């Protein structure tokens, strides 16, 4: 087996190159003992590429740097692929000089040559290769330019002939950072021509608007609103309604007819339990996919890094740097990777504070709840509703950060460095791949956790110690009636709604699955009889803010310990109760 290590600075197109080289022959895990992504892919069955985390140097300060350094030191790496940005060679080559210290065969992939050309930058790659002593492949990964040449070179395993000592001959490896940059600039001055009247790039023109101090925040909110409109009104919502009508009508009726000769309890288990529970959640896959499609486009275009930059000023007031907003943005997808991403923050204080407020970012698992209640109670205003819920989550997170800043954590300023990549057209293949991966994860959860919970809920709602009984005399009814008084002041204190909240701790999508099992004869009609518009809003806000799923709690425990995870879970349910109480009771006074 041949092992190739792929390294580079953040935002140089490393992931795009990795996907182009390996296609679908890849998998993602975690490094042993460290919650940092480990991505592996194969060009051929005997040539493995390991996509190491994006780093700026080998100083081993962050977990990403430690992972990369340990891998190169301890693993049998046959080749290092160092990918750099053609328009930022001076900064990118600093990592190259450090990689040369490992005395392993190495090639240099110079990406984004199209961007460099557009700026009028002319690079003599043959001379640069000779000066550095490294074989160079100029490419444009996003346009698939030069990729085949790299594939052919790697497939033939010609790198076995590369000289591993030539870099030392060319004076790589200063102990002093300034001397290293001087050496790099000396080489580049002889190999690269940069026009004196460097024309303003398209990225710079766009940034004058996107990063304008008056326009930046309204543009950010407008973009989010358009994504929600795209998700709930234009594409995802209509497709979800079609899928829901299929599951609730023809599909359920057909299955019930096929099972007509079986026992009533078995029919009920399949139709009222599994189909109502799992099917009720699966119908929301169009909404999940369209939202992630929008987010993936933003990320691939280079805009998400700008969001972190423009949020730095606000985050400073909360005692965090703008860098912390990146894990928070990841929380819109799922809190688990967001909490893992917080490990890139420099201080333990920042990591803990970010992990405490991150679950208030509305994850995709809550979308089915918003979509169902939004369509029933808010009609054509459901997009505005969902936008408002996301905004409430952000505001509550920021308020709690302010509170923690003044109580549990001292306000210590941390430096903020973020790469602002060139804007580019999102690569269709990369965007679709990321979107489908998220959809696959959602379906996997539906087929495991939600399936199991649906069966358990069906059993508990149909049985008691005396056997099969009416739902109001079941185990589940007893549990629900015990905890229902907690939620009565919030406007949704029935035992069915209380149980849905309880099962939602397993996974937020289960809230809809549980309601589907408890109201098998008609969910919309049942909810209209159980909720008013105000109590529905109170319910949605509670679902937004209360204790996250067990996977998030488990991740917090793994990262920061059991006491931290317990505190996080308990304080969130208190915050959710207080905010929902205020919304419902103040709303009752007004309306």
Description of the molecule:
- It is a single chain.
- This protein is an alpha/beta fold.
- It has two domains: 2-193, Rossmann fold (3-Layer(aba) Sandwich); 216-590, no CATH class.
- It contains 28 helices and eleven strands.
- It has helices at 14-22, 63-74, 89-99, 113-118, 125-132, 147-155, 166-169, 177-191, 202-210, 216-234, 236-258, 264-282, 285-301, 303-310, 312-317, 325-330, 335-341, 348-357, 367-378, 382-406, 428-462, 475-487, 495-503, 510-518, 523-530, 533-545, 550-560, 562-590; strands at residues 2-8, 26-30, 37-44, 47-51, 79-85, 106-111, 122-123, 135-138, 192-193, 463-464, 467-468.
- The strands form three sheets. It has a seven-stranded mixed sheet with strand order 2-3-4-1-5-6-8, with helices on both faces. A two-stranded antiparallel ribbon has the order 7-9.
- It is elongated.
Quick structural overview:
The protein is about 60% helix and about 10% strand. By secondary structure, the protein is of the alpha/beta class.
The total number of structural domains is 2
Cross-sheet strand order for the largest sheet: 2-3-4-1-5-6-8
Number of strands: 11
Count, helices: 28
Uncertain regions spanning at least 5 consecutive residues: 30-35, 165-174
Largest sheet data: 7 strands, mixed
**How much helix is in the residues?**
55-70%
Cα distance, first to last residue? Answer: 70 Å
Calculate Rg over CA atoms. 27 Å
Shape assignment? elongated
């Amino acid at each position: 087996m041949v092992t190739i290590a792929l390294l580079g600075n953040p935002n140089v197109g490393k992931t795009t190159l990795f996907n182009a080289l390996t296609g679908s022959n890849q998998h993602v895990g975690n490094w042993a003992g460290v919650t940092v992504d480990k991505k592996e892919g194969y060009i051929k069955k005997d040539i493995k590429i390991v996509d190491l985390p994006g780093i700026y140097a080998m100083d081993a300060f962050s977990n990403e740097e430690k992972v990369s350094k340990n891998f190169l030191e301890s693993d049998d790496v046959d080749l290092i692929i160092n990918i750099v940005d053609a328009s930022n060679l001076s900064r990118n080559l600093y990592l190259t000089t450090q990689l040369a210290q490992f005395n392993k065969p190495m090639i240099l992939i110079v990406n984004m040559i199209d961007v460099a050309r557009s700026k009028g930058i002319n690079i003599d790659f043959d001379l640069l290769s000779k000066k550095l002593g490294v074989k160079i492949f100029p490419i444009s990964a996003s346009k698939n330019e030069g990729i085949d040449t790299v594939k052919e070179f790697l497939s033939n395993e010609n790198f076995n002939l590369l000289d591993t000592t030539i870099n030392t001959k060319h004076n790589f490896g200063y102990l002093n950072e300034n001397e290293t940059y001087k050496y790099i600039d000396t080489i580049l001055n002889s190999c690269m021509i940069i026009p004196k009247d460097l024309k303003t790039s398209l990225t710079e023109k766009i940034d004058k608007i996107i990063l304008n101090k008056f326009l930046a925040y309204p543009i950010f909110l407008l973009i989010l609103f358009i994504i929600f409109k795209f998700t709930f009104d234009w594409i995802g919502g209509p497709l979800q309604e079609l899928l829901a009508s299929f599951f609730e009508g023809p599909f359920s009726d057909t299955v019930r007819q096929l099972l007509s000769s079986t026992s009533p309890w078995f029919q009920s288990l399949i139709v009222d339990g599994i189909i109502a529970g799992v099917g009720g959640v699966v119908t929301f896959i169009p909404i999940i996919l369209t939202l992630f499609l929008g987010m993936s486009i933003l990320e691939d275009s280079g805009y998400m890094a700008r969001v972190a930059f423009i949020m730095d000023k606000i985050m400073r007031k909360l005692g965090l740097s703008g860098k912390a907003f990146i894990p928070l943005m990841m929380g819109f997808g799922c809190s688990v990777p967001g909490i893992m991403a917080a490990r890139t923050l420099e201080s333990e204080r920042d990591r803990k504070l970010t992990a405490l407020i991150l679950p208030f970012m509305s994850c995709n698992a809550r979308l089915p709840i918003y979509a169902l209640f939004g369509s029933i109670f808010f009609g054509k205003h459901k997009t505005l509703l969902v936008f408002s819920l996301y905004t409430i989550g952000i505001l509550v997170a920021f308020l709690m950060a302010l509170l923690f800043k003044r109580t549990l954590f001292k306000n210590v300023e941390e430096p903020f460095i973020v790469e602002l990549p060139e804007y580019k057209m999102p690569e269709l293949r990369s965007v679709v791949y990321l979107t489908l991966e998220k959809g696959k994860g959602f379906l996997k959860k539906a087929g495991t956790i939600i399936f199991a919970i649906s069966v358990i809920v069906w059993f508990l709602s149909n049985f008691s110690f005396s056997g099969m009984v009416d739902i109001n005399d079941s185990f589940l009814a007893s549990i629900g009636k015990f905890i229902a008084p907690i939620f009565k002041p919030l406007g949704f204190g029935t035992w069915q709604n209380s149980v849905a909240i309880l099962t939602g701790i397993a996974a937020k999508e289960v809230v809809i699955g549980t309601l589907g099992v408890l109201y098998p004869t008609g969910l919309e009609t049942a909810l209209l009889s159980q909720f008013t518009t105000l109590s529905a809003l109170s319910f949605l806000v509670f679902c937004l803010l209360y204790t996250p799923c067990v996977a998030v709690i488990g991740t917090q425990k793994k990262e920061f310990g059991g006491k931290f995870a317990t505190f996080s879970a308990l304080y969130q349910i208190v915050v959710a109760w207080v905010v929902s109480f205020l919304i419902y009771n103040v709303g009752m006074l007004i309306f």
